[in-house]
Amino acid sequence: MSSIAAPVPLGTPRRAWLTDLPLLLVAVVWGGSYLAAKGITTTQTVVAVLVLRFALVLPVLVVAGRHKLRALGAAQWRGAALLGLILSGIFLLETYGVVHTSATNAGLIISLTMILTPLAEAAVTRTRPPRAFLGAAALSVTGVVLLTQGGGFTTPSLGDLLMLLAAVARTVHVLAMSRIKAVRSADSLSLTTVQLGAAVAVFAVIATLPGTGASPWTVALGFGPREWAGLLFLSVLCTLFAFFVQMWAVRRTSPSRVSLLLGTEPLWAAAAGLALAGDRLGLPGLAGAALVLAGTAWGRRAAGQDAG
């Protein structure tokens, strides 16, 4: 978000709280997104739900950023479209993954992105991460192993493996965003709009292929009030609201504070799964969840100290 103005110092604790609360709400709705997606999606409707989810918000983003969209250069369009292709893979893996595992597992496993990204960056730049970070990574990986064995030691489910691949894909997306020079100077709203547009195009093409499930139109007609409420939650709150809050908050507080608050997402995902979906982790799973949360928090601090 290099095009956004520098953070404005907070004058009072009250102003800090007014900035923190919307960010915390974003983390809460993101944590609830796994349960919402699981509630309205089946194996046969994954692609259709993805088309509907992002097609609902894309026109709003286009209208909001139409002037800056026209200012994008050809290289910026190509770079953002490439990022959109990666983004489509992320959402496909996440949504198919959450269909085949619990909302709790999905939210906690995807949090490994916070560990995988600095490790991948260190590998690309051929720099050694600090020992504390390596310890945090080992703690998180141990936690994921225990988490997927909540009911006893068994082979991880297909959904668990897909969520792990989604965490890897998120890491690739972050690295690509930082290394594609053309998009570094792009306006964040325009960049997001082009990425989502490219992703929707991918979903729409896949939806026309045989064997990919029901069409978006058929799924939309079959939705009842509960399904539409879930879809609007994903579209309006988890996409539109979350994006604009991040743009608003980063101008008023530090990136570290934004990261810290949004990093509570897996905690809310676990809370939603346990409280609302009746997920049961067992003692190994509970221990694994605690290790994942501790490892990602420790790793975020270690990475921040190393960057500083």
UniProtKB/TrEMBL annotation:
It is found in: Cell membrane. InterPro entries: Diverse_Substrate_Transporter, EamA_dom, EmrE-like. SUPFAM superfamilies: Multidrug resistance efflux transporter EmrE (SSF103481). The keyword Transmembrane applies. Keywords: Cell membrane, Membrane, Transmembrane, Transmembrane helix. Residues 21-148, 158-297 form the EamA domain. It comes from the Bacteria. The keyword Transmembrane helix applies. Its main location: membrane. The chain crosses the membrane at residues 21-40, 46-65, 77-96, 102-120, 132-152, 158-177, 189-209, 229-250. It is a multi-pass membrane protein. Pfam families: EamA. Belongs to the EamA transporter family. This is EamA domain-containing protein. It comes from Streptomyces gulbargensis.
